[in-house]
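Appendix B. One record, verbatim.
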Amino acid sequence: MYFLSGWPKRLLCPLGSPAEAPFHVQSDPQRTFFAVLAPVRLSIWYSRPSVLIVTYKEPEKSSSQFGSYKQAEWRPDSTMIAVSVAQRSSIVFLSTTAYGYILFFHITSTRGDKYLYEPVYPKGSPQMKGTPHFKEEQCAPALNLEMRKLLDLQAPIMSLQSVLEDLLVATSDGLLHLIHWEGMTNGRKAINLCTVPFSADLQSSRGSFLGFTDVHIRDMEYCATLDGFAVVFNDGKIGFITPVSSRFTAEQLHGVWPQDVVDGTCVAVNNKYRLMAFGCASGSVQVYTIDNATGAMLLSHKLQLTAKQYPDIWNKTGAVKLVKWSPDNSVVIVTWENGGLSLWSVFGAQLICTLGGDFAYRSDGTKKDPLKISSMSWGAEGYHLWVVSGFGAHNTGIESDSKSIVKQPGILLFQFIKSVLTVNPCMSNQEQVLLQGEDRLYLNCGEASQIQSARSSSARSEHKAGGGKSPFADSGLESQGLSTLLGHRHWHVVQISNTYLESNWPIRFSAIDKLGQNIAVVGKFGFAHYSLLTKKWKLFGNITQEQNMIVTGGLAWWNDFIVLACYNISDRQEELRVYLRTSNLDNAFAHITKAQAETLLLSVFRDVVIVFRADCSICLYSIERKSDGPNTTAGIQVLQEVSMSRYIPHPFLVVSVTLTSVSTENGITLKMPQQVPFRHQSSLELHLSFQHFNLARDAESIMLNLAGQLIMMQRDRSGPQIREKDSNPNQRKLLPFCPPVVLAQSVENVWTTCRANKQKRHLLEALWLSCGGAGMKVWLPLFPRDHRKPHSFLSQRIMLPFHINIYPLAVLFEDALVLGAVNDTLLYDSLYARSSAREQLEVLFPYCVVERTSQIYLHHILRQLLVRNLGEQALLLAQSCAALPYFPHVLELMLHEVLEEEATSREPIPDPLLPTVAKFITEFPLFLQTVVHCARKTEYALWNYLFAAVGNPKDLFEECLMAQDLDTAASYLIILQNMEVPAVSRQHATLLFNTALEQGKWDLCRHMIRFLKAIGSGESETPPSTPTAQEPSSSGGFEFFRNRSISLSQSAENVPASKFSLQKTLSMPSGPSGKRWSKDSDCAENMYIDMMLWRHARRLLEEVRLKDLGCFAAQLGFELISWLCRERTRAARVDNFVLALKRLHKDFLWPLPIIPASSLSSPFRNGKYRTVGEQLLKSQSADPFLNLEIDAGVPHVQRSQSWLGNIGPTHHEIDTASSHGPQMQDAFLSPLSNKGDECSIGSATDLTESSSVVDGDWTMVDENFSTLSLTQSELEHISMELASKGPHKSQVQLRYLLHIFMEAGCLDWCIVIGLILRESSIINQIVVLIQSSEVDGEMLQNIKTGLHAVDRWASTDCPGYKPFLNIIKPQVQKLSELTEEQVQPEAFQPVPVGKTPEHAGPRAEESRGSLGHGSVPPGEVGGGSLVSRKEEDTTRAEEEDSFQDGTYDCSVS
């Protein structure tokens, strides 16, 4: 509502003796001038600029006679000041007669056109032009202060109060004097308080009198709207004195008082809300109102600090010293005897308190002395608070510390910014937060360009029905996006035009349009508007027009128009005006309607303007756009007038008035015209009546906030609603309104929307209320489920209260959010370390900033519905909001709050809510996550209570596994670890570990290894961290180590001998997985984990899932080589070479080879291709991809690397190929044209569509191989060879696996990989290995059998393999010979490096260590689509069958 801004300012007072130190400040009724009292000095200050105008100093002689000044009161027209004088104690004791002097000062303007200060502008500046009222606004006027009259009332004066044209004075002898401002008593008799009867209420026939002699009034204030005085007596009693008739005499006065208050110290009155705030000696403020029926004083609420918020100070504040309401009556400021300042909303929501936080403590933690305030007064519009700090004349430390600026009494100006709702309540039906400061505005909507792009389409969309606009607009029609309204914590600050401010300060109203793109502000005269898109202000071109209008009732936006109610000074006429934003700001372009009486409030609902006038009447106008010729204007017509004078005692009491579509009958708001009972109309009549019927249906009720009472008046539908056929349908009379009904008390703000959304009817048709300290309330509609007919005895709406932690400034209806703002503070005292600077204002006060904030309220409403057994309504509401991004948080908050309350309650709860909440949450798929997240954020002691309601954690864990939600299951595992014995934890952890291995959740696997190890070694007190969602990874397979390469196809001459050293031992991988292997390898727990890992690896090999095996080993640091050595003759044996070949082609997205049309006379046959092909392959596939560390001095390496980087088919291209496994495939090959058509040099089959990549300039090939002369057929073979290569990543992965299998001695797998890569050097290397070492005869036999099977398969199904098989025939022959020798082999020994230098690879530990860094999404195998485990198993089985049965026909065209 109100927020502190920046540091307070200090006004420079003339330094003098302590007797001249100020102690009291009082503003005039217009808040333009401020009277500042010192003991013998009266000063007048100007508000803007804040400068001293004139000072009157009491002469020595008269000051010794009268005494020192005490209190000041202004005359309503600001021409006089009455100052009461406190007698000096010596006079009281020496004299027999007591004196009570009042000094009357006249304020007169000095002669002529003289000003104290005048702004100096450079020559030719626009401000030099003759602006009316220019000097008065810009310059402080020169005034004279003259004492004209002295009045003695014979007793010390306790209180002064200006009442209309009179001055009411209370004296210490118990008398009330009514004095005319000219200083005369007018012969009126003083009223003795002892003769005024007091009772508990006005209905008592006779009240008791004040039964003691020395009673008198200590403080009092007049309340115009209650027509009486709130008083505080010297004994601490409080009361309210009101005249029973118009005459102000003792016989006509009657007092009421509450019996229980005996410690009152001061009082302040709120005229708008009819509240009396009494400060008490206990430190609290008791706020009373008058009961309309009985006249008794009723306690409305208390303002008091709580021990929870301020544990060290809440009961040590001392008595309340001062209470002051703001000029707009929306906040109250309170200060205490011991110092401190607090700000509260009208019904008790605390906004600011300086007794805690950075206000009370320095950055080093030491406590500051609170600011003591001796007097304070609000400035114009509440933007400033003038404070006289409490180091008055009675402070003895002044002389000794005269050098300290701050310790000297002075005037501080606290600066405030406030919500626009305090002055322009029509803004409450919008979703933006708008704050207005003295010279700037703060908006919560983001950049206007961002808003416009997001909403340009939706803003224009309207549903058409029956030729007229239908109100059933899209839900997003006027709702700004969450990102716009909640984007960040910073404000969009708009500086108000200085040109406008100079002559129209202060800003009184402001408004923003629904799209958040345009703002309008109203100052003293006229108005101005600003576009956030163009960043420009638009002011009146004719300054006289601006200065001729005073906006009275606020302003509002309607589409592109500004609607405002104003007073025309020259015509002396109240008017309603509409200005178009896009036209020049001039009355010539305005639509002006004359009004009967002064407009106090204005609001817009759809196409209706509702105004509340000073004669207590409400008037509805229709507003429509008119395009007359070149100018677009808006037309306004009176629709309906409603007199409220019977119900409203004083028009000033109406806080806000608005039209809404809210009604007690929910069905009304969504009925179409056809459903209304005038069925015998023609379609034309229906169309004609549609617009007016919409209006009658939409504007269902008027909501009126009458001094905090929310009153609703609905349309009266009880009478006949038959339209006369002969009357003009456009003049159809609107329905009258029913008598008003009170909906709620203590209401500060009301929010409602005119939008419709069938999905979120609960939220959009609700009414939201802000009730100060009582929190918020929502008047929620209740809908029957499945369109059943509602029970007649059930209410169709329910009022639900709930508390939120912020002060609400806007409601986002669909998003279930409340937006607000909060004061934040920044300490700068560390910058002033010197002791001399310890008392600077920047040190004593923190710097105040205002931050945007928001809060979810949905969980409060759901809970309130569940408490009232409205679970069905709660479910409907929750389901409508389930798509919100923070809906899981809503459920979690609700569960957490109920759990905390019930589990920590000291009393037994007869009807616990937790089981109901738990049952409610099970209706949503997020049930499992909600419960476990709530448990993890709650103390362990409450877990038993929670799981007694929601279910056994073991069952919930198993549900997570069944739902494949492994991360949530891991969280439950931590719960189980704390609640169950270790054996149960291990059992469940094993289940989860196996499932995570199956699904390739490597991150989770690593956590599970650590968890199982912790259980086994007794470290169960350190639970594993909950794994987050699977880390996103960059690759589809295990990431190959970056800067190393394994090239098994290059000759030894190209590789430095020192580059690689092949070692059997693996280094331990880094990270959490590495620690597992480094110690306690003999431990049973490690063996248990190893067994699970081995079992998984065996399964992967048996299912020919080499890609998954590589990922598994790389991610978990699995010792693949040593395990393969052990399993060489068991799991690591290839049983079916053809099946393995097919599976690898599919897993690694590797295309099957094809034969070009001209291959019948192929150079493959005579080996001629070898010289070109092998060399090309070396440079293409080996060097750029794999030999990254080899000295790149040869130019062709770099060139071919860049050229070939794009040649391999991409994942997307091969996706289709790899998914066609079982089906028959026809490859259509187009022969090359003799003209060398470059477009056809690509692949010739849909298996690899890389022609678009390869059809570039082939001169690069010529540069690389300038020594080679390539014929047409050789070029064709090269292109075919490139087309049948798989992705680069797959090639790297295959070569890595080849290296692993080679080291482990799994030669049959090496043969399979060599066949896929189609590199004869690999086969050759294996043959050399077999010759140089003794290899198991069974393996040799298996290899021989497998190669023959592949040969047969190639002959029948895949002739593309035949050329390569022909190339390696000699090696196959050699293998057959070795097999036939049948030498009984000994155990396999890996070949030392020196024997085969050309086949050297990088060190295994390096490869393993670097492999662990890249994590892989497991689902990328097989086309990159994630499938569930069950689907994978079934498809795998089908694929294996199809692999065995399927045939591949490569027909050559």
